[in-house]
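Obj: model holo form, ligand = magnesium ion.
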Amino acid sequence: MTKNRLMGIAASDGIAIGRAYLLTEPDLTFEKRIVEDPEGEITRFLDSFEKAKKEVQAIRDHVAKAVGEEEAQVFDAHVMVLSDPELMNSIKDNIQTNRVNAEQAVHDVTTMFIQMFEAMEDNPYMQERAADIRDVSERVMSHLLGVKIPTPSTIKEEVVIVARDLTPSDTAQLNRQYVKGFVTDIGGRTSHSAIMARSLEIPAVVGTQSVTTQVTDGDMVIIDGLDGNIIINPDGETLAKYQEKATVYEAQKTEWAKLKNAATVTKDGKHVELGANIGTPKDLTGVLANGAEAIGLYRTEFLYMDSDTFPSEEEQFEAYKTVLQEMDGKPVVVRTMDIGGDKELPYLELPEEMNPFLGYRAIRICLAEPEMFRTQLRALLRASVYGTLRIMFPMIATLNEFRAAKQLLEEEKAKLIEEGVEVSNDIQVGIMIEIPAAAVLAHQFAKEVDFFSVGTNDLIQYTMAADRMSQQVSYLYQPYNPSILTLLKHVIDSAHAQGKWVGMCGEMAGDQMAVPLLLGLGLDEFSMSASSILQTRSLLAKLDTNEMKELADKAINECTTVEEVMELVTTFKETLEN
Ligand code: PEP
Ligand code: MG
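Output (holo structure tokens):
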């Protein structure tokens, strides 16, 4: 039975209302049939080729305009396959000789060509032809069967995307002008598609479990990214209610926008730094529009993920330089590559692992492949003279890892200086605290690093042993659990004892329930999706540091469960609203 309402995890603020665009794998299964009328099947097959050709040409034109001529060329190859007389004659012969339906003939002939080309293992050109034929045969099959192959890059009207999951690269390709929101079956608040939705400021709900089976293309869908509700084909009254909610939210945003150029100070006048998290230099627009005082996390792995090969030193240098220059002297914390977990590179083969989040990733790869790491470090060091650079290593578990990474950085710095290249002599070097072993040993780390930035997305999943991607155990993903707060207190106190600062770049930093507690724990810098900055600035202005210290002490010393902490904070926040 289809449902009219679903509940998921609110992943990106805002309300989106629009027609559904299903981004799901098409069902291309068919049955073999023996036909009486081969000529009729030949007409069907020719017709499907013609339609596929028109469609590919339209996509080609669109990609050429929207992305670039080079990227569009792959579609020329598809048009050639769709006009190839050898392929077409073989399909025709197959229908006439075997008297089978067009689907079966297309399948048999294309499979034969694909296998033939794939057998030429040493010939990359032939491998590409095999891939082209596979793509084309799917498209032709979709026309024969009357099912749609989704092509999100060509969307030309306002829609909401409905998908089982969205990879970070799918999310990056969404056109903000037309994509008003998205909703998925799987994922959690800290999965990278959710994080990207927040930086693109697209309302999103993830982890509904079944939205793809409840919604059909063209249904009217409301996505409430504030509460996690999904309403399918709403009645007039519900639609009006959500239109009103969207208006109220927009008005609230307008209020927050007035704080764009304001300093971030608490009620008692303490300044805290409010930074933004970015994935690519393109995100800077949102960062500047929302008045960030720093970049607290630049996830450089997206540079690697957006490319077909490892980005060269020059390409990396240009990206880092752009970000530093645009931030005009404000601090920029660049995290070295954090590949692995849910972030894969098409050109880097990673081992199949049972638990990729606990496996070969981030600094572990960088230390095992030092040449690749050195390239990134050189690019960073060269860019350092264009602003205030801070370098941060991810997934540090031991001091030996930090020392080894720092040693490579020092070596590259010395080499550059010897080559006469200018390098800033004021680069802070810190680590992410996202592995419990490093959090527990923070008092030792604090003696050697310049700063900590707490990556709660991973720290919470490792401390609670609850996979951040799993909705079954998402109830255990508890940022306000007294155990997490106790760990944070130890990290912050340890850093302060050594005169070091502590930031937080995990999603908890922008969580409006967590902010009072984090201020009370003494956090120095909060870094979050750009879209959360202004509301956090507004909230911080209402908080008194000493009062928050008492609140955090209570949460740690008197509360025994996450529910008790939430009640404590909710009760406190109600006093703010009155
Ligand atoms: C984190 O783990 O909190 C973090 C900021 O890193 P990522 O989300 O990229 O793993
Ligand atoms: Mg992390």
